[in-house]
């Protein structure tokens, strides 16, 4: 697999637009700098993102993403580049044009990003299940399924969470509203003990299917998943569970939007029909119920994972977002749902 163009360039977080123009000299050398238009995207909470295009030709927009401060602690950038190439080869992602010291240049997906209403639209949710099933069938080049990443990454995150914050008010919230590190480690071991026996298959997962990472192109009757920073081989039920958790949104989180049992059963049956499309036997009620139980238990792991992630971002990120508050929300929802979800039983 041919690699993307390497660009000798470092783009400062406060001069993304001028840096993007320099990147275009390599990935779009025929474009005249003074004719390039720039669109600034503000949805992301991890990186800075702009789009470069020529007047009247937004179809050929090139996205330039500048990694957030210290995000290499959270994201394996080499794996991200490999994942983008694998996904593009399988028709699941736009082309990766270039890589610079602290970011990427890649194709733009036209359509609308989902919101908390569109994500639960019956037609769109069916398309999400279809695309997830397709991604879950991507096989490793060497034919050997790697270890699932969930608990490996969580263990790494534990080495990065802060002991305290310099800001007194922030530190007080941290000490009062976040369980201690030893408590969190005990919770992780308890989770591991509850989830591993479920034997959820290990598949190629996106791992971050929130509303704004899904683009709906109505004219083509399809969705495209974007932003593959956290993609890896992981538990099938985790990828779905994380998606369901994200029905709550990010900017104004509302966990009452977590899909109910009826919605989930419909979604999961449709997903399994796509996932098992190559077998003659129909999907059974028992298969749907097994996945329902697996998914809701793994929903706890998704809250826990992003809670840890948020604490690290609260320490390092320069993005204007209250990561500590987001971490508190995730851990609170984990604790609120823990007994309910762990009590679910697999069918006989």
From TrEMBL:
Swiss-Prot/TrEMBL GO biological process terms: phosphatidylethanolamine biosynthetic process
InterPro entries: Kinase-like_dom_sf (IPR011009)
Top EC class, one word: transferase
Keyword Lipid biosynthesis appears in the UniProt entry: yes
Pfam families registered for this protein in UniProt: Choline_kinase
Membrane-spanning residues: none
Keywords, ordered alphabetically: Lipid biosynthesis, Lipid metabolism, Phospholipid biosynthesis, Phospholipid metabolism
GO cellular component terms attached to this protein's record: cytoplasm
Gene3D superfamilies cross-referenced by the UniProt entry: 3.90.1200.10, Phosphorylase Kinase, domain 1
Keyword Lipid biosynthesis listed: yes
EC number: 2.7.1.82
GO molecular function: ethanolamine kinase activity
Pathway(s) of this molecule: Phospholipid metabolism; phosphatidylethanolamine biosynthesis; phosphatidylethanolamine from ethanolamine: step 1/3
Record PANTHER family: CHOLINE/ETHANOALAMINE KINASE, ETHANOLAMINE KINASE
Family: Belongs to the choline/ethanolamine kinase family.
Name of the protein: ethanolamine kinase
The organism of origin for this protein: Branchiostoma belcheri (Amphioxus)
Gene that this polypeptide is encoded by: LOC109475543
